[in-house]
Specification:
212 residues; Endonuclease III, domain 1; Endonuclease Iii, domain 2; 2 domains; single chain; 54% helix; mainly alpha
Length: 212
Amino acid sequence: MPEQIVVPPPEYWGEACRHLTRKDRVMKRLIPQFGDACLRSRGDAFTTLARSIVGQQISVKAAQTVWDRFATLPRRMSPGNVLKLKVDDMQAAGLSARKIEYLVDLALHFDCGAIRPEAWEAMSDDEIIAELVGIRGIGRWTAEMFLIFHLMRPNVLPLDDVGLINGISRNYFSGDPVSRSDAREVAAAWAPYCSVATWYIWRSLDPLPVEY
């Protein structure tokens, strides 16, 4: 199976880091700690969403194991090939009946043209989220991760993300509980680069960069 292409970092990254360093005392401290590391995407929309479904509600390690088994089933990971797979083989790879339903629904949406990756460039973040949450098994959080990691949109603030809320609590509120409105207030200084600030908040909790 060919290795996925990792696309280059976003063009806005340097400007975003300068903006955040000027506007936010925590970012001024965090950003230099991670050198040249930055957000990276693997560049395939269907595979990115399929991986997010496989990884739901299980550990990162377990998700990787199941994904590795599942990814060997089709000759190439594509909507059409996934639709040809046998349910028994997918279950043997470690997928639950519900995740199999979600993966088939995802493949159907791509295969029949209900999902239009070529139109995303002209669409707003909210329009893309609305399109993606129409697929079974994809909620707002998954759609926001997709905006950040696949489309590399610069100003996504995933308020449903536990890591972001925990990181804001630790870095800005000495570990005290944080509400969504507290998080929004902190993030007001991050705009229009909330995705970049979120990435650095995640790094403050786990130095290994996340990739989807």
